[in-house]
Amino acid sequence: MSASTIPTIDLSAWRAGDRQGRERHAMVVDQALERAGFLLVTGHGVHPDLPAAIRTAARTFFHQPTDAKLPFLAEAGQYGWSGPGAVATGRAEGLVTPPDLVETWSAAPGPYDATAERSDPGLLPKAWPSQPPALRPLLARYVRSMRALADELLELLAAALRRPLDFFTRHTTRPDWTLTLNWYPAITTTGAPRPGQFRVGPHTDFGTITVLDRQPGKGGLQIHTEDNGWQDAPYDPRALTVNIGDLMARWTGDRWRSGRHRVLAPPADAPSEELMSLVYFYDCDPHTVVESLPAPIGRVSHPAVTARSYVRSKVAEIALR
After folding, report:
1. Looking at the domain that runs over 8-318, which CATH code has it been given?
2. Is 244 helix (H, G, I), strand (E, B) or coil?
3. Alpha helices (runs of H) in the chain, residue ranges in sequence order
4. Who's near 29: CB < 8 A, 6+ residues apart?
5. Is residue 118 predicted with pLDDT exceeding 70?
6. Cis status, amide bond into 132, omega within 30 of 0
7. Residue 108's Cα: distance from chain center in Å?
């Protein structure tokens, strides 16, 4: 995909830019989100050692026998480990596909403690594996970085719509978010994929923005646009991949496109390839009522929805158990 379709935005240049420079960044973002719903971002401030350490710890967990992981099984609507066969993401688009070839560990903010006035709530799930012991503290560090980055990205998006910088962040005082570690096992573990089976089926995300730290591979991320169909997503080891979801597309009155994507099945010609993605799904305060911006910014007026109930209804569509 060309850099004009999915550009790279240097957030350090955005922060340091004068008014004209920031307006140029905002215009590029607006055009990219109209075309594909995706960006690459550098200058994000996340040191590469942190996601590398998370992957090392998480592989220790995922590579354990199933019996060792079962105590951390996520029940419906909860957080923790989800094994093979838990989701078929293509169902969100009405597609009938086999289950996704992925295992996940998911974390989310714990209940807000108003008495302690904690701005950084504890992590769910309540039970974490003792092996590896580093997983929880590493993820706690990572979500602090992601929360700050997501709010900065929402300010950039507000500027791209020529709205006040706090247009979105005024709704992220105590936001919903989920951090999901997607482990894509090698074909030697999963066996040959069934017809129409993916590591993650074709879909758009459900919330406002997603921040993705990913690894390249033959069975990797693809992005769909009307002009080019399915193509491999561009990769830059310095960059994070950012896309908007359905809630943000509705908010903009479909000015912007919810980024459609999929993760290919494990490749037969690279049987040992396994990949891991760190996926931070950012929404907003649970009771935020999302209404489409009117013309000339918005192009379609969607019925108003409540943020948490909308996202949860979409998540329920893809769950197989």
Report:
1. 2.60.120.330
2. strand
3. 11-16, 19-35, 49-62, 66-69, 135-160, 187-190, 246-251, 307-318
4. 9, 39, 156, 157, 159, 160
5. no
6. yes
7. 13
Measured CA to CA, the distance from residue 120 to residue 1 in angstroms comes to 38
Tokens representing 170? 């005024």
Task: With H, G, I as helix, E, B as strand and everything else as coil, classify residue 147.
Answer: helix
- Return d(Cα 289, Cα 267) in angstroms, integer: 43
Residue type, position 2, single letter? S
The token pair that represents 233 in the structure block: 């997503």
What's the pTM? 0.95
CA distance 79 to 268: 32
> pLDDT tens digits, residue range 202-256?
999 999 999 999 999 999 999 999 888 999 999 999 999 999 999 999 999 999 9
Tokens of 85: 């066969």
Q: Which two tokens stand for residue 274?
A: 């396994």
On whether the CB atoms of residues 13 and 41 are closer than 8 A, the answer is no
Task: Give 230's contacts (C-beta < 8 A, 6+ positions apart).
Answer: 222, 223, 224, 262
Query: What are the helix (H) ranges across 117-267?
Result: 135-160, 187-190, 246-251
Q: What is the length of the chain?
A: 321
Report how far residue 283's alpha carbon sits from residue 35's, in angstroms, rounded to the nearest whole number: 22
Residue 24 tokens, joined: 């140029």
